[in-house]
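Marked as duplicate of an earlier ticket. Keeping the data here for the record.
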Amino acid sequence: MFPLVDADSSNAVRAVGDVQPAAVVVDMPGTDNARFEALAERIAARKPYLPLIAVEPEVSLPPNALPLALHGGNYDRLSLRLRAALRVRALNATALRRLANEPPAAIRLLENDPALHATVLLIGRGGAYPALSVAIGERTGVVGAFSIEAAASHLANRDINGIVIGEGFTTRVVDAFLTVLSEDARFRNLPVVLTSGELAPAYEMPNLEIITGDPAHVAANALPLIRQHALEAQLGRTLRAIEAKGLLDPQTGLLTPGAFDRDFASAVGQTLAHGGGLSAARFVFDPQYGRARIDGARIISRLMRKMDFGALRQDGSVIVVFSDTDLRNAHAIARRLSAVMRHTSHGRRGARTEPAVTVAALGPRDSAKSLLARLYADAQRAVS
């Protein structure tokens, strides 16, 4: 596939610096764990993204080491996994290049770990489900589904960065689900982790993996695949923000606060001048769960109508403006958005964070400032 440079564990760190590779593949059996962790730490600091693939791992992996089981020497899986990872590297290089060429001042590549705001779809019914939910929830957001039908609904309504399939389903049901995913371009590259069973060679899914063991081990070795997909999604949002000349927030896909204020003032002025309806909703998230507001903002960005717009505010709330919408319909839209957010759990106890929602409609004597003030005042009265 590519020009290859061999190295053993004693000189791998030096080789990465000397060779400047596009990817690193490590044959894990017999590899010294301390040296491997030093190698992973060195690779994690590299830019653009440098894929690290750990073949046949026997231990829990560092957050940036992608696990790969060959299952009887099926090296086609290595080819698929490597090409998918190199596409993410190319996307990262493109974003860095475009940011270096006079980017909008507001856009920067996020330095925090992409997994912090990722969302994992956990599907299962068995006794291991609660422990898996806790183990994954300690690392990232979790959306639970007890059926394939519920899982399909979550995939349609929100940005999912990985799927973990636990116990409780027959081989036939899992096979049908994987077949549907592999045939849909939207989901083909999603990380999918099976906690039991065997992989069929027919699935053209580069990030499909079996990881067995206790829930903490499954979560630790699934995280690198989820993290890579979250990075890919983050880079995609960054490139869209560059194309929008800095008007979009690369973290959420919503407008930046400045762009929102300008659009909001213009929308209020046009509605008052030409008639029609305009409503706004404010979603307030529990500050104890910082991931919840990012997750909620991305759900809103994905599900809101094309004629609507919103922004993540400096106080951590999200405000969405519903164009040509009266108060009753605005309440219905806000309830639907809130219902989707309700299913995400965060943290050790699996606490589910549903936002507090305040809705207000534009009156004939309103201005953009007074309508915003009413959203905040109504929320304060509700708390009181």
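See parent ticket for discussion. DSSP finds eleven helices and 14 strands in the chain.
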